[in-house]
């Protein structure tokens, strides 16, 4: 789209921190954890110090033999150094391929095989406890961010390597490979270029620009997700102090925010859900937040209401963006205390003028409506250029400049896009499982998760999780489901037992499979 193309020179991840440090050299980067690659750096650095660390790590990768155009898979224990290693890899013209720490060893091997003999940056813990021995045969060389192994080279052993000049690759060259959520099977490897990433910057940058530069921006986003590589540049280039959270534990977060109150928070929907308990925390960790922002998945109206309630700022806003790893943000809307998410909670907003487009394609020749939703298709210059090793799968979702999202919905006469379900999650007789889940959350405060999946007979089966794993109040449940479509009796699970993606989305198909297996064995 034309506004995404004006002045688009590519995101230039390799020199990102250099450019930010040139503008705001003393601005802080605050962490809630130590970096495996540089624990001596501590949990508070200036942008100048982070830029130096990225340069240092780039020199070590170069000393290990990594050269422009080659691929470097990063799959290590969770931490912000995953993101920094990606920037360091890009700094020498190589292509970082980021794999979530949550992926199992077999899936990692399959994805590394697809990348075709890359360098692999991992750590001793992953090699000792998670990755099969065959990983050494799939990688050109294994490098360790921490620990040691007889068949691997430690990055620590390469400390002090001569610094190398940054390598600038063309803006249409691959600059980063991330993977999809894997909610429907083995993740796909999404190939981004410098230009496609920069195209995603503008829709999201407008939100951060509303917050004063002196106010910190807190980010709790998967370090391997494409969203990190737009949220982070926006924050540091605009001059905001940056808080990076690895842990979403409310107690940890409350203490971090007490010491450095953020003006804007970017996080996963399920993270905000977990932070509902902070509303009544006497430290008031969310009191200074002017903007809450979430891009990854549908967010429940109850959570939006509680986040806004926790803020003591004048007219706080909750910004919800609709998008996907493959295309970036597509549509957005805001909620306020006066107009909360309980008003049209399934509405995910409107496309960004001059930047993104949305259409809903009929499945049966009739106009898409709530009871007869269509396929949601979008267009944006932020779209990936291929799935690595699976270009045919990419072509199946691409229709010229349009991209099939895999979601079902409709648009109102005012142009608002309503998201009802994923195509693969549709249940016969149910207009929207997401809408029912929103209703149940609103009616039962004790719920911390509810997922509706089909049982072995195709009936909607609610899987519920409660705060502190307390037994579900069946009387409250019976009252809550009054007026809703008929469903099977609820099944209660512990939240940690639900299969999750890197961005804490629930793998619904996997959950349905586990439930079926559990009932078969019973």
UniProtKB/TrEMBL annotation:
<dbReference type="InterPro" id="IPR000873">
    <property type="entry name" value="AMP-dep_synth/lig_dom"/>
</dbReference>
<dbReference type="InterPro" id="IPR050237">
    <property type="entry name" value="ATP-dep_AMP-bd_enzyme"/>
</dbReference>
<dbReference type="InterPro" id="IPR020845">
    <property type="entry name" value="AMP-binding_CS"/>
</dbReference>
<dbReference type="InterPro" id="IPR042099">
    <property type="entry name" value="ANL_N_sf"/>
</dbReference>
<dbReference type="Pfam" id="PF00501">
    <property type="entry name" value="AMP-binding"/>
</dbReference>
<feature type="domain" description="AMP-dependent synthetase/ligase">
    <location>
        <begin position="17"/>
        <end position="384"/>
    </location>
</feature>
<protein>
    <submittedName>
        <fullName>Class I adenylate-forming enzyme family protein</fullName>
    </submittedName>
</protein>
């Amino acid at each position: 789209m034309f506004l995404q193309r004006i002045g688009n020179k590519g995101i230039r991840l390799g020199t990102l921190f250099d450019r930010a440090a040139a503008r705001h050299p003393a601005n802080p980067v605050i962490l809630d954890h130590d970096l495996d690659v540089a624990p001596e750096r501590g949990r508070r650095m200036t942008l100048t110090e982070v830029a130096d660390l990225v340069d240092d790590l780039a020199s070590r990768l170069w000393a290990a033999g990594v050269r422009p155009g080659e691929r470097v898979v990063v799959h290590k224990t969770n931490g912000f150094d995953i993101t920094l290693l990606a920037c360091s890899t890009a700094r020498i013209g190589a292509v970082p391929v980021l794999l979530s720490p949550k992926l199992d060893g077999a899936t990692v091997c399959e994805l590394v095989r697809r990348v075709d003999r890359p360098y692999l940056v991992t750590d001793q813990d992953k090699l000792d406890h998670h990755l099969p021995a065959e990983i050494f045969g799939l990688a050109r060389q294994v490098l360790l961010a921490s620990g040691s192994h007889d068949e691997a080279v430690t990055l620590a052993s390469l400390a002090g390597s001569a610094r190398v000049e940054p390598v600038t690759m063309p803006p249409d060259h691959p600059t980063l490979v991330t993977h999809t959520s894997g909610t429907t099977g083995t993740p796909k490897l999404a190939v981004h270029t410098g230009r496609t990433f920069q195209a995603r910057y503008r829709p999201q940058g407008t939100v951060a620009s509303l917050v004063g530069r002196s106010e910190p921006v807190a980010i709790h986003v998967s370090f391997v997700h494409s969203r990190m590589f737009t949220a982070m540049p926006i924050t540091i280039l605009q001059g905001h102090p940056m808080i990076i959270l690895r842990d979403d534990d409310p107690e940890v977060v409350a203490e971090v925010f007490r010491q450095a109150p953020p003006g804007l928070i970017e996080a996963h929907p399920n993270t905000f859900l977990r932070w509902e308990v902070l509303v009544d925390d006497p430290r008031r960790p969310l009191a200074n937040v002017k903007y809450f922002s979430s891009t990854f998945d549908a967010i429940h109206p109850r959570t939006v209401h509680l986040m806004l309630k926790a803020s003591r700022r004048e007219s706080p806003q909750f910004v919800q963006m609709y998008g996907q790893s493959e295309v970036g943000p597509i549509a957005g809307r805001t909620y306020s205390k006066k107009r909360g998410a309980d008003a049209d909670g399934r509405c995910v907003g409107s496309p960004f003028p001059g930047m993104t487009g949305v259409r809903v394609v009929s499945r049966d020749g009739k106009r898409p409506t709530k009871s007869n939703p269509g396929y949601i298709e979008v267009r944006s210059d932020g779209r990936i250029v291929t799935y690595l090793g699976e270009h045919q799968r990419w072509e199946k979702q691409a229709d010229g400049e349009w991209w099939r999202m895999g979601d079902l919905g409709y648009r109102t006469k005012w142009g608002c896009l309503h998201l009802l379900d994923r195509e693969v999650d549709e249940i016969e007789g149910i207009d929207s499982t997401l809408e029912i889940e929103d209703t149940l959350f609103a009616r039962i405060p004790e719920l911390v998760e509810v997922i509706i999946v089909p049982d072995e007979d195709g009936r909607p089966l609610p899987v519920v999780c409660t705060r502190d794993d307390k037994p579900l109040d069946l009387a409250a449940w019976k009252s809550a489901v009054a007026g809703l479509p008929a469903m099977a009796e609820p099944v209660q699970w512990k939240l940690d037992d639900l299969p999750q993606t890197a961005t804490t989305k629930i793998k619904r198909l996997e959950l349905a499979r586990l439930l079926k297996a559990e009932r078969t064995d019973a």
